[in-house]
Specification:
Length: 676
Amino acid sequence: MPFLIPFIIQAVITLAISAAITLAFSLLFPQQRRQQQQNQSAVPKPEDGKYAFKQNVPSLPVVMGRVKKPGDYVFLEERQGQAFHGMVMAGHRIEGFVQHWLHDEPTTFSGGSIVTPSHFVGYVGLEEKLGLPLQAASTVLTSFFPEIWTAAHRGDGLAYCVLNYATAAQERYTEIYPQQMPQHSAVIDGAWLYDPRTNQDPDDPETWTFSTNLALERLWHLTHPTGGKLSLDDMHLPDWSVAATIADQTVLNRDEEEEPRYHGGLWYRADNDQVEIGRLLDEAGEMVLYERADGKIGVHPGVLVTPDIRITADDILAFRYDANRRLASNVLATRGRFTDPDAAYNTVDAAIYGDPYTGDDTQRTRTVDNQAVQYHNHMQRLQKLAFIRANAPRVSLTIVYDAFSTIRFVRYRRFVRVHLPTRDLDEAIVEIVGRPKLSLRNLTYTFDAIVVPATLYSFDAATEEGVRGTTGEAVEPTGVPVPENFAIGIAAEVVTAGQTQAYGVASWDHLSDALNYELEWQLSDESAPPQSVISRSGETEARTQALADGATYRFRLRAWSNGAASEWTDYETEIAVADTVAPGQPVDFASVKVGSTVTLSWTNPNSPNLYKTELYRGGTASFGSAVLIYTANGGIGEPRSYDDPALAAGTYYWWLVSKNASDVSSSPVGPQTKTI
């Protein structure tokens, strides 16, 4: 079959090339090869000790103000029984970490070790990095993984933390990690912001400071590469200084506590819609941005400025008025949603402003949903403003452009005054909606506005804030209950040839069929390791294995449920007794004195469980003061004798006691007495 030879040679060459490619792939791309092998293997079982985690490559997070957020994984490895998690919290320098959370539990760390909650103590460590422009590499990672994480892995400009979780023993795993591998999040004080009211250097961010002022946050966002991408030279800083000052003003909430007028915070990613981020900040700070005549960006703060432009009938070319009084569409109430620090920075509902129900139970509400708001009073003020504006009369004006009158500045104003008594606008204040349009062809300005009261920003917290919803308090889990009424007793059973052995019997109160109980016993001197046995579900008793006869043991009990154990009960101590029946008494007990020697004789009892006979001597007629002087082992029913020689002058008393192997004794026989 010569024609097969070329095909065989070709097959051999193909296999060789395939093997060479596979080897090269393994050498050049070991990580990809290992991943490929893992994908081809079976799904790991829990007992394999593996932790599966997948994460898309995220864009950098940006944090302004104080927020609570999770991190993005940049490191996840295991070594020496510990799992190391490296997580980036912000893509810039931050003020600091305020509080770390593991799942839904707030934690306390001291010196890099966890202090609370108690079940994590000794198992969780932490290292923090603030994202400095030039910062040292993680000491934890460089110590444990020097081959892949060196001093060159500094992470400049990245605020991150490294948590390490130690492996727990199997019987304590669910106690230490009740929710499996802890999911980390943290409350963070975010970016340093430029404040134009101070002498900070606008070109040196190291001179800036942390703030939750929403006006400063918006200024920072407009000038940040992930935001407006403008520069501080593009900003009209006097406007921003005024806005920041107004935002810092204090207001009283319903409980007469002081709060800042417009403070808050939020975080976003670099690839988020920056227009939406700007809208949230503007809404939260009640700000309106505008472009000045010099091209710079100014801001109208959240306060009613007395209008310096007055429009009268002589200025108006066209006018349209909408009273906005439609029964089917008027807004009856506003709802609010904000980020509540008291609810672990979760989004919660504010009290409803207004009455959302009419006689026919028709609900007509508007919702103010802003995650940058972090105070209930703040949200209530925004709700009131939304309510007023939703129901305010609408006007549309076309006015004459006059280059020699202040009316030409209308496009740079938020509030103007309109005096048109014939339309019920008597020195009315209107808020311009949108940007006025200038027509150079007609030399006119056209704009829309709403009629607002002079008390637009007035707010009486005592009567208008409403009662905020209560924040539910997390109930601390008590874990598996400790057994109640634990008791231990010693019992005996016959094994072979009439021999008996002791064992312990534990009992407890029944609580639930979901619980199993572990009984542990150990010699009191700890000369041997402890032993244990697990009861079956629903049982209220458990017994030990055979115990050493006459030895002292200590016993304790704990409950188990779904792999979690309760605390142990206190120790109970008992002596193991295999034979509780005393042998019979010795008989024919007699004594003979010859000089200073007394010979004592007797006959052992005819008891099958006789183990030994003990002879005691005392100086009084009380057995309690006598001491052991002789032991005769075995000899069931046999005669025994003992010479007690060289006694000093005096009167002596002797008793006999028979004992079984468990050291259970008969009543003493005697006394025999002699005087020397």
